[in-house]
Amino acid sequence: AQKVTQAQTEISVVEKEDVTLDCVYETRDTTYYLFWYKQPPSGELVFLIRRNSFDEQNEISGRYSWNFQKSTSSFNFTITASQVVDSAVYFCALSYNTDKLIFGTGTRLQVFP
Amino acid sequence: DTAVSQTPKYLVTQMGNDKSIKCEQNLGHDTMYWYKQDSKKFLKIMFSYNNKELIINETVPNRFSPKSPDKAHLNLHINSLELGDSAVYFCASSQDLEGISYGYTFGSGTRLTVV
Question: Partners of B108 in the beta sheet?
Fold first, then answer.
């Protein structure tokens, strides 16, 4: 069965701290895609990153970085030097066979000034 | 230019009513979806259409009926609304080429409140 687990329900940090959001997935497919979305308090879903199963290179985009490890079926997301504007719910998601997105339950990140 | 637009953004209605949510995408994508986000923020797919054909129907009550007049539009009709239908409904679209997924674009959501 395909499944995405985000074990951290809520994380609170103080500004400028680094924070890592964990994502563990399950799938039998050899070709699949992993995503991270951000949902700020305004409610929209903002695309952050897409990674295919054949590309295990880590990626960095500004203060954001992603660590994809097939050996542990994890796709973790790190925010460096967090800011108040990073406060949101973050969703990890899995897609296979170009089909629907299966979302994790989300991690609520609160960044305090 | 809005890529995936949903209307209305907010919808408050009484139990038993019938309502529709409209979705349009101007990205030229072939596949469109409806997702439901419940009060605990859990996101789950309801339907997907590819070029106006129903592809996925995820055990959704018959009171929910999607309609796709063309590949740029996917509307959601809900009959006999119940309190449990209160949620945020997201429309999305995606483009897949030769089995490669190029990602999903979501609309801004419709918050449905049934009273």
Answer: none
Cβ count near A86 (within 10 Å): 19
B109 contact A CB<8A: yes
Residue A28, sorted as left (phi over 0), alpha (psi -120 to 50) or beta, turns out to be alpha
B24 in Cβ contact with B5 (< 8 Å): yes
User: At which residue do the structure tokens 């019938």 appear?
Assistant: B18
* More confident call, A6 vs A99: A6
Q: Mapping DSSP to helix (H, G, I), strand (E, B) and coil, where does residue B84 land?
A: helix
Report the alpha-carbon distance of residue B11 to residue B87 in Å, rounded: 10
| Residue A59 pLDDT | 86
Our CA-based measurement puts residue B101 at a distance from the nearest CA of chain A, in whole angstroms, of: 5
Model pLDDT for residues A10-62, shown as the tens digit of each residue:
999 999 999 999 999 999 888 899 999 999 999 999 999 989 898 888 888 89
- Identify which of A87, A82, A78, A80 has the alpha carbon closest to the alpha carbon of residue A14: A82
Residue B53 corresponds to which amino acid?
A: E
Within A1-105, strands assigned E span 3-5, 10-14, 19-21, 24-26, 32-39, 46-52, 59-61, 64-69, 74-79, 88-96, 101-103
Which residue reads 């399950």 in tokens?
A: A26
Q: Do B101 and A33 touch (CB under 8 A)?
A: yes
What's the DSSP call for residue B59?
S
Q: What letter would DSSP give residue B99?
A: T
Q: How confident is the model at residue B58 (pLDDT cuts 50, 70, 90)?
A: confident
Whole-angstrom Cα distance, residue A6 to residue A22? 6
pLDDT at B27 over 60: yes
